[in-house]
Design brief:
Blueprint lengths: L2 H7 L7 H9 L9 H17 L14 H11 L1 H20 L8 H7 L5 H10 L9 H4 L5 H10 L2 H15 L11 H10 L16 H9 L8 H5 L1 H12 L6 H10 L11 H4 L13 H19 L12 H11 L6 H18 L5 H19 L5
């Protein structure tokens, strides 16, 4: 039985209302002395530990109430737990295999700096999505595909489409020229060109039943906001929950919270990647580790999402090419393109050595990906 199946099979069997409330609010702190809660959560932790293989080496770095957090993630949604563990595993493997242009292994580069430890990075990776437990399941487990959201966007009036794009521009601080709003064609062409996801535009209410809309409104979420915007809250919630896992004076714990709080870069300027195309170092990787390490988590996160066959919106594992393209596309949104190329290179080289038979179209797509990677790697960092 795979670990994934084990996690799925060992479903939480406690139907305790208090624990349910706790899961949906993420309030750990207040439960510290509640005996009933302690008994319930201990049982959950034991079940979780027996479902997780030792190969994850979690014992090396998990601390304090981390197991409790993982047990709550599993109770919230076993897919999210599996995603969290896998993101960490991908990250750990990658940083041990990536060779930087100066010949150093990435893990050595990370260990040479003193701002964050390797174990803090692993903790942040495992716990990066813990904030999702505070978001209503109707939002986080939305099953509507991106194509259907796109169709919903197109069905709306031009006035409504303009309102939604202007709103996104305001939220993300995007500078959109006025002529984009001139006609429906120019607006849709802009969205297409900039690869703006319809999940950032269409109100979530357009994909819910009336009672569901009421339910999320009651939980304090505005149903006029798009799914993608509502989900963004989880990044900050993750930091809030991680801070509660240990004493507020635990500086290591605070550093882990900081790393997790930027795993999507939502709170940061989206033009960051453009303004910092490479970096100040000869490696073209930022020496600001509070900026750089969350990017490693982000890449592992995207890679896991693309490889996972468990995602609601995707049936079966995405093809390699689709995965590479998705990762490259995200390099426009805050992840250093040079480092994205460094990240992709070992897997591309492996694929090339395998001499897998591909169709002419796939060969063409792969060639384009190789060219992008090479282009990034050859760019000279600014002096
Ligand atoms: Fe996330
Ligand atoms: Fe994630």
């Amino acid at each position: 039985m795979t670990e994934e199946e084990k996690i799925e099979q060992t479903q939480p069997d406690l139907i305790d209302k208090e624990l349910e409330i706790l899961v949906s609010t993420g309030q750990f702190e207040s439960q510290g002395s509640n005996i009933e809660y302690k008994v319930l959560i201990s049982a959950e932790i034991e079940k979780l530990k027996s479902a997780i293989e030792k190969s994850h080496k979690l014992g090396e770095f998990l601390k304090g109430r981390d197991w409790e957090a993982l047990a709550l993630i599993r109770r919230f949604d076993s897919k999210t737990l599996y995603h969290s563990l896998n993101t960490y595993s991908i990250l750990r493997n990658k940083i041990h295999e990536i060779v930087l242009p100066d010949g150093r292994l990435l893990i050595d580069y990370i260990n040479e700096q003193e701002e964050f430890t390797e174990h803090e990075l692993y903790r942040a990776a495992v716990l990066h999505d813990v904030g999702k437990i505070k978001i209503p399941s109707l939002i986080i487990n939305n099953v509507i595909s991106r194509d259907r959201w796109k169709a919903k966007f197109k069905q709306q009036s031009f006035e409504e489409q303009k309102r939604q794009l202007r709103r996104l521009a305001e939220i993300d601080g995007l500078d959109i020229p006025e002529h984009v709003y001139a006609t429906q064609e120019s607006l849709e062409a802009f969205i297409e060109e900039k690869k703006i996801s319809p999940t950032l535009l269409v109100p979530i209410a357009n994909g819910l039943f009336p009672d569901e809309i009421e339910s999320i409104r009651e939980q304090g979420y505005d149903p006029d906001l798009p799914l993608g915007i509502l989900v963004r809250c989880h990044e900050q919630y993750s930091a809030e929950i991680i801070r509660q896992l240990s004493d507020e004076n635990d500086s290591s714990n605070n550093r882990v919270a900081e790393l997790a709080s930027h795993h999507h870069n939502y709170g940061r300027d989206k033009t960051f990647a453009e303004q910092n195309p490479a970096s100040t170092t000869s490696l073209a990787i930022s020496e600001n580790f509070a900026e750089f390490l969350p990017q490693i988590i982000a890449l592992a996160d995207i890679q896991e999402a693309m490889e996972s066959s468990l995602r609601n919106y995707r049936k079966g594992p995405a093809k390699q090419i689709e995965k590479f393209n998705e990762i490259i596309m995200r390099a426009d949104t805050g992840i250093n393109p040079f480092f994205t190329a460094v990240w992709l290179k070992p897997e591309l080289d492996f694929l090339e050595k395998q001499h897998t038979v591909v169709s002419p179209d796939e060969a063409k797509a792969l060639k384009k990906i190789y060219a992008w990677v090479e282009d990034q790697l050859n760019k000279k960092p600014p002096k």
